[in-house]
Amino acid sequence: MTSGAVPAPLGTNGGSSSTRAHRQLLEEQRDERRRAFRRPQRTVNTTRANGAGLGGRHLGVGISLSGGFFALFLMWRFAMQWDRYPNPLPTLAAWVILVIAIAVTGVFVNRLSSRMPTWMLLTVLATGEVVVGLDLAGYGRGDALGTYPTAAAGVGALFAMLVTVRRGREVVAATLVLGAVIAAGSLTAAASMPLTFAPAILTISLCVFPPLVGVSIVRGFRRMVQRELDLVLVQSTVTQPSSAVGMLASEELARIDLDAETLLDDVATGRTALPLSPAKSAAAATLATQLRLHLIEGRRETWLHHALTESEFLGPAVNLDDPSGLAGQLSPEQRDALLLAIWLLISDTDGAEPTVSLVFGPLGRTSGHEIGEMLRFPIKMIVEGVPRRRVDPETWQAIRVVGPHIDSVRSGQLHVDIECSIDNPADA
User: Which is more confident, 287 or 3?
Assistant: First the structure.
């Protein structure tokens, strides 16, 4: 989210080169804001502390049960091909270890509130390596027709239990290594006996399918939860004063306040002698400067600025130009409706990355004048990447709550001119 200059709309006579340059500018601004985005630490802590309450634990149980069905099928196949093994004892030992590992891992995963410790992850991976080694030793070189690794493929069910307590890339990497090892053992035998090629492909699929699908499901679920939490965070700014300090700034102010209290306490208790050393004086001056800057920013930044900068989804996609802070004068109903309209424009698209530019004011003689006790000013909304026919009817209803509007399409952009009426601040 940027405050200040908003990219100028394309003129009707602009060529294709200016169109590409404009879109490239929007993409660069979006990427820069996405890289610079930092979620408030309070939101991160709350999400981590309430991961189980948000359904993550139930999701993990469902994925584990799904992987368990794959393991049961493989165990049944092991029993069916028992007589064909040259030596079934190593594979039997592998299954015993795998069943114990799945049971123990399931107990620990259900008791963990958030993240599995690294040492426990390494233990699970080492156990999986032992199971794979024993199963491939019992499988031999695939000399017996109709046999293929079973316990080794069942390790995928063990890895699927980790998708909610470890990073997805770690589970994916371990799964790919496991699949490569099983492929090396299975396809080597299939080279001499083509009839075993199809079972080998099935074995590899049963190995990698549960954890990879589990990672995909968990990522989608977390994305959905983050989007809903982001919406709640954005809506919480509606009740803020016209100019206020956001969550990120308040966290920074709390840090500055703690540093200042520590310095003053050191001086009061004698731990820091007077006069202050050059280093302590520089630190005190830095704290004072940071405090003044935050207080000044708090008088200029409106609730809408905080709603956009603290939103992972709205921030990269919305440009804001409100030098007079007119957004702070909107009523709670108008604020909520404006946020809803922006949210619907950004989120109700399939694959596209729309950009919304908002220009408030000016509140002058031509656009702002008294109507009884009301003042008027324009809000210009320029939407890039969303065709008018794709705009949800609820979006137009929300815009009508903000004020009467006129919409038009120019150079592929949707322009919405809103005439907003507010109470005169002088009458408050």
Answer: 287
Same domain membership, residue 402 and residue 258: no
Q: How many CB atoms lie within 10 A of CB 324?
A: 15
The span from the CA of 365 to the CA of 194, in Å, is 85
pLDDT tens digits along 238-286: 776 666 555 555 556 667 766 777 777 777 777 777 777 777 777 777 7
Q: Above pLDDT 70, what percent of the chain?
A: 70
204 shares a domain with 83: yes
Q: Can you give the pLDDT at residue 230? A: 78
Prior bond to 9 cis, omega within 30? Answer: no
Domain's final residue, options 224, 253, 284: 224
Residue 240 inside a domain? The answer is no
**53 plus 88 within the same structural domain:** yes
DSSP type of residue 196: G
Residue 309 lies in a domain: no
Three-state SS across 272-319? CCCCCCHHHHHHHHHHHHHHHHHHHHHHHCEHHHHHHHCCCCCHHHEE
Range of the domain at 425: 1-37+314-428
**Residue where a domain terminates, one of 224, 258, 291:** 224
Q: Tell me the C-alpha to C-alpha distance, in Å, between residue 143 and each of 148, 152, 189, 192, 205.
A: 10, 18, 8, 9, 22
In the numeric block, the tokens 């690294």 are attached to 118
Q: Phi and psi of 375, rounded to 5°?
A: -115, 150
Question: What one-letter code names the amino acid at 114?
Answer: S
Question: pLDDT tens for residues 172-189?
Answer: 999 999 888 888 776 666
Q: How confident is the model at residue 211 (pLDDT cuts 50, 70, 90)?
A: very high
Q: Has residue 284 been placed in a domain?
A: yes
Give me 176's structure tokens: 């790919």
Based on the fold, state whether residues 396 and 351 are members of the same structural domain. yes
pLDDT for 236 beyond 80: no
For residues 175 and 74, state if they share a domain: yes
> pLDDT, tens digit, for every residue of 46-58?
555 555 455 566 7
Residue 120 and residue 194 in one domain = yes
Q: How far apart are CA 254 and CA 315, in angstroms?
A: 24
Note the pTM of the prediction, 2 decimals: 0.66
Beta strands across the sheet bearing 355-360: 2-3, 318-321, 355-360, 374-384, 413-423, 405-410
Task: Say which CATH number the domain at 7 has.
Answer: 3.30.565
